[in-house]
Amino acid sequence: MKVSIYRYNPDTDREPSMKEYEVDTQGKDLMVLDVLNLVKEQDPSMAYRRSCREGVCGSDGMNINGKNGLACITPLSEVAPGVKEGKKPLVLRPLPGLPVIRDLVVDMTMFYNQYEKVQPYLQNDTPAPAIERLQTPEDRAKLDGLYECILCACCSTSCPSFWWNPEKFLGPAALLQSYRFLADSRDEATEERLSRLDDPFSLFRCHGIMNCVSVCPKGLNPTRAIGHIRSMLLERGV
Amino acid sequence: MVTSVTSLGRNGLYDWLIQRVSAVVIAVYVIGMLGFLIAQPDLDYGTWSAFMGSVPMQIANTLLLFSVAAHTWIGLWSVTTDYLTSLTFGKAATSVRLVVQMAIALLLLVYLLWGLLMIWGGA
C-alpha cells in the first residue's frame, strides 16, 4: 500500500513536503502505528511520537487521512474505505494548528498552557479527614466521561476556534478538564473557576460544531461538558 | 481570563445571551412578517403603510432594528477576532482589526439611527 507522510526538518528543509512510501501490509488490517513502524524500518529519519501503543498514553495523536486520531488504535479499515486494500493511500500529517518540531512531532506547549490555566487539580481548603474525602456513588458518577481524558490533543487541534485563538480559547480538552473539577463534589473553588471562564474567549469561543466529539479516541464529549459549564455560568449570572 | 474591550458586553455570557435573545426576536419577526404577506396576497401601498405605521409594528420594527444591530455586532466581532489576527496579518493585525471593527460599528450605528428615523420620524 501507498503511505504519504508529511516530512519537515527545520534544520535542513525550506518548507514541508509529502513523501511517498510503499509498505507491504500482507493484506492485514494493521493499526496505523504498525504501518508507521514499517516505514521507520525503511527510513529511520522519519520522526513520530509513540509510547504505550494501546491508546492510553496519548503520544501518537496525528491527522490520519484528514481526521485526527491515535495511530495505535486506528485500524487501516477504519481510516477510509479502500485504504486497507491499498486502493487509496494512507495520508499522515501532524496534528493541525500546532507548530511542527519535525515530521509528525508537534510542539504541544500551547495546548499544555491552556490545560494549566484551568488549574486541573482538586482545590479544597477544609482540613483533610483521617481517611480520604468521601464522595457518594452518585457524585462519583458525575466524573464519568470526564476523568478518562488522556490529553492527546486530538480534539483541541481539530477545533477551528482553537486554531484561530490558541492562546485565548482554552480548547475542548482544557474545558473538559475544567468541568471535571467543577463537577467534583470535593472541589471548593467553583466560584473562582467560573469567574475565570466568563470572558468572550476562554469558553464562549466554542460554537458547538462538535469536531472534538467526532475525533475523541476515548469517545468523550467535550461539547456536552462545555454546555454544562455554560449552564453553570448562566445560573450564576442571571 | 481574557479582557476584551470591543466585545458588546465585554463578557462572554452577556454576549452569548444577547446573541440568542436577538436571534429569537429576529425569527419571530420574520415568521410574523411572512404570515402577514401570505395573508395579504393583494397587498397595496395603503395597507402596507397602515400596517407598518401602527404602534405595535413600530415597536416590533424598533426591536428588530436593535436585535439585528446587536446580533450583527457580536457575530462580526467574533469573525474579526477569529480571522483578522496575527496569524493572517502579522504585526498589522491589531490595526487592521480595529479599523474593520470601527467601520462595522459606524455602519451599524448609521443603520440604527436611520432606521429609527424611518420608524418614528412619522409623516
From TrEMBL, chain A:
Its cofactor is [3Fe-4S] cluster; [4Fe-4S] cluster; [2Fe-2S] cluster. Pfam families: Fer2_3 (PF13085), Fer4_17 (PF13534). Residues 139-169 form the 4Fe-4S ferredoxin-type domain. InterPro entries: 2Fe-2S_ferredoxin-like_sf, 4Fe4S_Fe-S-bd, 4Fe4S_Fe_S_CS, Beta-grasp_dom_sf, Helical_ferredxn, SDH/FRD_Iron-Sulfur, Succ_DH/fum_Rdtase_Fe-S, Succ_DH/fum_Rdtase_N. The keyword GTP-binding does not apply. It comes from the Bacteria. Its EC number is 1.3.5.1. Keywords: 2Fe-2S, 3Fe-4S, 4Fe-4S, Iron, Iron-sulfur, Metal-binding, Oxidoreductase, Tricarboxylic acid cycle. Belongs to the succinate dehydrogenase/fumarate reductase iron-sulfur protein family. This is succinate dehydrogenase.
Automatic annotation (TrEMBL), chain B:
CDD domains: SQR_TypeC_SdhD. Pfam families: Sdh_cyt. Its main location: membrane. Keywords: Cell inner membrane, Cell membrane, Electron transport, Heme, Iron, Membrane, Metal-binding, Transmembrane, Transmembrane helix, Transport, Tricarboxylic acid cycle. It is found in: Cell inner membrane. It comes from the Bacteria. It is a multi-pass membrane protein. The chain crosses the membrane at residues 21-39, 59-77, 98-120. Its cofactor is heme. Pathway: Carbohydrate metabolism; tricarboxylic acid cycle. Membrane-anchoring subunit of succinate dehydrogenase (SDH). This is Succinate dehydrogenase hydrophobic membrane anchor subunit. It comes from Alloalcanivorax venustensis ISO4.
